[in-house]
Design brief:
globular, about 50 residues, 3 strands, three-stranded antiparallel β-sheet, mainly beta
Length: about 50
Amino acid sequence: MAKYVCDVCGYVYDPEVGDPDNGIQPGIAWADLPEDWVCPLCGVGKDEFSEE
């Protein structure tokens, strides 16, 4: 599964790790993240991420 990088702060969403601090379990693909999910570091939306 592809990783996605925040264009603003550089946070990397890795589907193998997920975002457990925000309720996203490991194994959740980028396309399956909720539309209202935001970067846990800077708070921007999914539209501010690029595929790594």
